[in-house]
Amino acid sequence: MTPNLTHLHPYPFEKLAQLKHGITPPADKTHIALSIGEPTHPTPDFIKAALAQHSQGLGIYPTTKGIPELRASIADWLSIRFKIPAEFIDSDTHILPVSGTREALFSFAQCIVDPTDKPVVIMPNPFYQIYEGATLLAGAEPYFLNTLEDSGYLPDFDSVPEHIWQRCQLIYICSPGNPSGAVISQSEQEKLIGLAEKYDFIIASDECYSELYDDENNPPIGLLQSAYAMGNTDFKRCVVFHSLSKRSNVPGLRSGFVAGDADILKAYFQYRTYQGCAMPLPTQYASIKAWGDETHVQENRDLYREKFTAFISILENICEIHKPPASFYVWLKTPISDTDFAQQLFAQENITVLPGSYLSRPFEGINPGANHVRIALVAPLSECIKAANRIHNFLTTLK
């Protein structure tokens, strides 16, 4: 066994199960799960139809690079969504289909990191735990960027010491962020690209929440969009990760893509030919349909907006609560410790939320996720309203 396995932390939901162990919630209140970021809106019928229509493709080994039609549909979507002229996105060299962003975000570090050179991988804190696990198993040292309320829950790149930048080989960013929904501005992304050029590291931008945003006239900026705007039309050192899971309500389809710097993707493609995560043909054809349609994505955003509005209106008179610019999470400050809050809420109201400290690590004397809980508004509207009323009742007991 690789000794790096011993450095891995328990996954947040394993810790959550332990926190709830032995507690019997009220039997007269149905359980409402708001802890896992798993979309529950219906999968569009046209995606399911495309999957079934091409089921004969299960009898064919898929290629690592995917069919040209899939890469072309992704290139078209990238160009339109992020305002990059089509001639600057080569579907053959700038795009690789992947089996969801989780496996890609993990495997990317295994391909990129040179463990012989005391590497550092920088990541936001709180974070998606795959970043940390990928870093540790690649033989690198994680460096955490605390994202706090004072900075709008955004990473402060100016706070990183020069000796860390000098050792940095890879930085993970997440915009819109998990768990806060905060969006990194174009100016900050351009600053980071400049740092990558100066210190020669790669930026991995996790953008899987990019299509769940509040302001229809102001969609979140993307890393490739920022690179293009500053004249980096080859997207050097820039790689983005996108998924259909949240955008199209198909988490079980395991379909996404990686796009950006052609030289990096050439090496990553070679790695993936050995790794073996090729996307099945039926999934590819269903993905083409999904990337080519925006109507269902607009309807999806409308549903989340409705849930945010209802949820926040019930709670805003008893606690400090804000609608995030993007994502489907409420990053709620708690009047008691986040673990006590989550445990007591489950015991009294039969609602499961995720303690914020389970999504972060103590760094520079603080745990930036402490005294917060992540609430995923993935349940149906009626359940979200019911949950908000129960949380309101629970908060009343804490006053």
Break the fold down into its secondary structure elements and pairings.
Elements: H1 12-20, E1 32-33, H2 45-53, H3 68-81, E2 95-98, H4 101-112, E3 120-125, H5 129-137, E4 141-146, H6 162-167, E5 168-174, H7 186-199, E6 202-206, H8 223-229, E7 238-243, H9 244-248, E8 256-260, H10 262-275, H11 281-291, H12 295-315, E9 329-333, H13 338-349, E10 351-352, E11 354-355, E12 372-376, H14 381-398
Parallel strand pairs: 1-10, 3-4, 3-5, 5-6, 6-7
Antiparallel strand pairs: 2-8, 7-8, 9-12, 11-12
Report the end-to-end length measured between terminal Cα atoms.
Answer: 51 Å
Question: What Rg is obtained from the alpha carbons, in whole angstroms?
Answer: 21 Å
pLDDT below 50 for ≥5 consecutive residues: which ranges?
none
Helical percentage = 40-55%
Roughly what fraction of the amino acids lie in strands? 5-15%
Classification by helices and strands: alpha/beta
Compute the average pLDDT. 97
Number of strands: 12
Question: How does the major sheet shape up?
Answer: 7 strands, mixed
Give the helix tally. 14
Run of helices and strands: HEHHEHEHEHEHEHEHEHHHEHEEEH
Question: What does the overall shape look like?
Answer: globular
Question: If strands are numbered along the chain, what order do they take across the biggest sheet?
Answer: 2-8-7-6-5-3-4
